[in-house]
Amino acid sequence: MLDKNRHTNLLEQSQYKYSLQDVDEPNLYREIYPYDEVPKVAFNHRRVPLCMPEEIWITDTTFRDGQQSRAPYTADQIVDIYKMLHRLGGPRGIIRQSEFFVYTKKDKEAVLRCMDLGYEFPEVTTWIRAKKEDFDLVHELGIKETGILVSCSDYHIFKKLGLSRGEALDHYLGVVKRAFDAGIRPRCHLEDITRADFYGFVVPFVNALHDLAAEADIPVKIRMCDTMGYGVSYPGVALPRSVPGIVYGLHHYADVSSDMLEWHGHNDFYHGVTNAVNAWLYGASGVNCSLLGIGERTGNIPLEAMVMEYSALRGTTDGMDTTVITEIAEYFERELDYHIPPMTPFVGSAFNLTRAGVHADGLMKDTEIYNIFDTDKILNRKAEVAISNTSGTAGIAYWINKHLGLSGGDTVTKQSPLVLKVKEEVDRLYADGRTTLMGNDELIEIINQYNSLLKEE
């Protein structure tokens, strides 16, 4: 039998309908996940086609997954950050949704205050337990979509829940039906999908979800959760670790449309951003992130990273205000006392800072030589230099011009008397045993001291 595939617009042979494989013993993929060794990457040399959706977007989990790994935000802080997410996402809502807890009085206050702002984007969604009282609460708050945990690997089904696959499937379908009965769109979080039996459980389960959704006439969103960061995106890599394979399989064998497919990854093996990009490339419209990558263990996909990836893939920001990224970073450090590692891309204090004199000399001639892009325009962050015994006169001259706001004929050069005097003092301090970078305040003090001396001459 031939059917027209609505994703490829081609006539294709009807695909095999996968049935649930109820097994007596859990499939733990020990050849891939031996536990006492680094997980293995297996290849089957099957490559799937790129399938970038017409629309892609970002969703936010700062107030849910991000809040599980740090001190809880206050309601005021949540509202402040939510406002910045709205501005960052722009009028087209590239940051499409943000998910919240609703368990405490503070959580509910934050949800209501954010909803009262009347923003179309990010849409306020929730994450709840699979309990009737939670569905009732979400319904009372006026939430239209909620996340529901549906763990899909045998690690969770057998070891955590103590169920068989068939029992887990029946339980999950019952939970989703309760969401339908409450008039809420369920977003099913397929926890630990990169250790799951994809064709023995995941695909049959998602197909059963589709049948249930068709009866209720309410769509079901699928979130592919790489809970432990095991996903990889190499060409020809095998399931269950293959990000392209997971996305393609849900498209092709479970008929999940791009707008109903979302990737949620972690960074345990440094693959977070790469996997998220590949989820987009192979057919998922949504990528779930948290600000600054704050999340469980090594963190989630940094939202600000995916803003940059979106811009690179699309060739446009589509209205996103990327300068808000710097405001967010400053807010986290100032208001939340959160220390951002200095080398963190786009938000760390050293991400566009150079310590080497030869690099500073390049910046003096043209910032494009040693700056990744116009960070002043895109992030409202000028390229920076740090002063030490390796900065040389070029670094000192660049620092003085930047921090004193000198331009045109007022700028100093490597040969300027002031620069040479400051260089002598910096060299003297390091010759006496100093090992740390020069602070801004002490450099200003040295500059003021020698500037006055030079004026007297």
Description:
The structure is a single chain. With 457 residues, the protein is an alpha/beta fold. It has 15 helices and 12 strands. Helix 5 runs parallel beside helix 6, helix 6 packs across helix 7 and helix 14 packs across helix 15. The termini are far apart.
Sheet with most strands: 8 strands, parallel, barrel
Mean pLDDT: 92
Which structural class fits the helix and strand makeup? alpha/beta
Report how far apart the termini are.
94 Å
Form type: elongated
Strand order of the largest sheet: 3-4-5-6-7-8-9-10
Q: Assembly type of the shown chains?
A: single chain
Q: H/E series, N to C?
A: EEEHEHEHEHHEHEHEHEHHEHHEHHH
Number of strands: 12
Determine Rg (CA atoms, Å): 26 Å
| Total helical elements | 15
Give a concise summary.
40% of the residues lie in helices and 11% in strands.
Secondary structure layout plus pairing:
Elements: E1 2-4, E2 11-13, E3 57-60, H1 75-89, E4 95-100, H2 105-116, E5 123-128, H3 132-141, E6 145-149, H4 154-160, H5 165-181, E7 185-190, H6 198-216, E8 221-226, H7 243-254, E9 261-265, H8 272-281, E10 286-289, H9 303-314, H10 324-335, E11 353-354, H11 357-365, H12 375-379, E12 384-385, H13 392-403, H14 417-431, H15 440-456
Parallel strand pairs: 3-4, 3-10, 4-5, 5-6, 6-7, 7-8, 8-9, 9-10, 11-12
Antiparallel strand pairs: 1-2
Helix pairs in contact: 1-2, 1-10, 5-6, 6-7, 11-13, 13-14, 14-15
Output the keywords.
457 residues, 15 helices, two-stranded antiparallel ribbon, 12 strands, alpha/beta, 11% strand
